[in-house]
């Protein structure tokens, strides 16, 4: 029960809150994002995204430097300045885990979910995954009132947005709430700010919602306490003779909870030269005094080397401003460490100072001025008085805020490996893209089918509503469905073996009468089908006209029967064939007779796969259409008929809010002629219209790009996994996606499971590996040597551990039957470890933990191996 506060206690609480609030040196944070400070000072912040600077070739880097320097040079003289802030903030780990961890579903596949969860948790501990780098540019202006300030800030923000976009960085002006969330991330790392402007009452301040319970600046002159956290602000006290981009890049790359702020205040034209000249005149006067003093003492009148060096530096500075179009800036660089203990704070402080000292710089704590320094490091645009140094824009531009882009989707992300530059996880959700269809491209043996299986499995395990379909011309994916059935011990993952010996029949004449344009679409599709059957993908104008006429006749009879209420059935290819025959006999039309004759083999002959009513069971949410046993002459036709069958499923799923994923392996087979290209393009458009996610998989990039349609589809798709490529293919992809030379080289040297990933407008490198001691690795892997190794390991384990009279499913972990001293078993268990299912530990805060390794897992039938 909450204790009721006395009047005195309430008064003391108000005093405490107001005292803590006073540590934050701003007056108001307006809803529109304008921060009101003292002395008629106002600020606005712009959040901007990273660019692929690290992988850019030297020429591109120089261009970015030059453009960034132009941005700094363009600052008007009436601006009080700009501040660059890198906020390496802690993510809300609870929310991040919740987003990453797949909940169990008790459907027989929870072992696989736990393996995926464990991999994600393992990778979460690497790189900056617990750190999110917010990059903020804050503009400050002096104005008489907030209306005037808003006008000037809007103009400055508009100019900065356009300039940053020219560098490939996306920008947005931060609202008041977003700026408060950034401040709160400093005060309460990893916590969520519960605030809306509607919560403010009369006399309330936004500080009431973000300020900590207590701040102590008196414990030490070199750091301060903020609730239970230890914080320290360092400033760059000593600058090296030469600045390179590696200094600031290394500072940003530190894997700690840091806030880095660089204040830059431009000196107005006219005042810059006089300011430098004043410094030079003062140096000359001191220099002359030193010479005279040295001579009076019997010396040669030499000037100390350091004094001479500083004088030459000042002269060079004057040349920069007068002759090289450089602007003069007052700058200060501060770093705030935010740690959970003093030991951690001291450790991080040493890391920061080490980065500086290796490059000739020095960071020092702001002794006795931690409160003022705390406000200077916050992204509100208030630099510390009487701190910093004077330099030119080229030095400021070297402290460039770009390293590498990241891909981190917010809702239902799928893991695609890690960014080797930042070591951060790549988390994407294709359904968030405007055009989610995509491609997986790569040489044989470098992970194309693996990538498709891994993505589809994540979709299957994460989204119980998603339907997944594979068009499988090489028999690559049937093993996946069969293993899922074994693991789940349920026959719910379907392999449809489509060949001449099966009893499966697809009816290309089936229609969806709920589609208002069904007749037009079906007529167009049947032209593709008949062209594939009798014309090697092409029909003459006369043939097209005849086919279209008979199609309309067949459907006219069908719809008339439906409208009259008579019992009827969906037309088939046999009905079309009979109508064409009738028309040929009635009209003595040789073209019609020729079409009918050519269709005979597909109706009454050995290739009657598409001549009957459909008997395909499409009820499963995971279906592999295995067409590997079909001959080349009919395989492309089968792919088209299957895809057209899936169109109706895509539309139905869209109407019921279910996502559909379609994977087409060896997609180049659908690009053999203009008819096929048009068909595939129409299927692509259909999926986009109805929320389907289709993926084309191929090794033949050059052949793919010979097609104008395919090139357009590839360039317009917002998702693409590019694995290792040959030289010619790399050159074509470089032109198509505007890859840098470094990115192109990475494709030439990429190992298995690595390359480039395109997500929207972002293209970054990725590296994807998966633990070999998992069941998922076994069912995804198609490398014959690796499969042989796993099979031999299983046989050895079974031989050494499992006796013939053992029960095939259940073993007591303490039973002697599971215990063996066999050396061969021990060796194979080490080599090809079969992990036990990871389980939630009772009372554990973590969703999953690693369970001990065991030889046999529940749900596995050892007799099957």
TrEMBL record:
Name the InterPro entries on file: P-loop_NTPase (IPR027417), P-loop_TraG (IPR043964), T4SS_component (IPR051162)
Region (Disordered): which ranges?
802-823
Q: Where is the composition biased (Basic and acidic residues)?
A: 802-821
| Spans traversing the lipid bilayer | none
Q: Which residues form the TraG P-loop domain?
A: 433-754
Could you tell me the superkingdom of the organism this chain comes from? Bacteria
UniProt cross-references to SUPFAM superfamilies, sorted A to Z: P-loop containing nucleoside triphosphate hydrolases (SSF52540)
Family annotation (NCBIfam families): conju_CD1110 (NF045971)
User: Sorted alphabetically, which PANTHER family does this protein's record hold?
Assistant: SLR6007 PROTEIN, UNCHARACTERIZED PROTEIN YJGR-RELATED
Protein name stated in the entry: TraG P-loop domain-containing protein
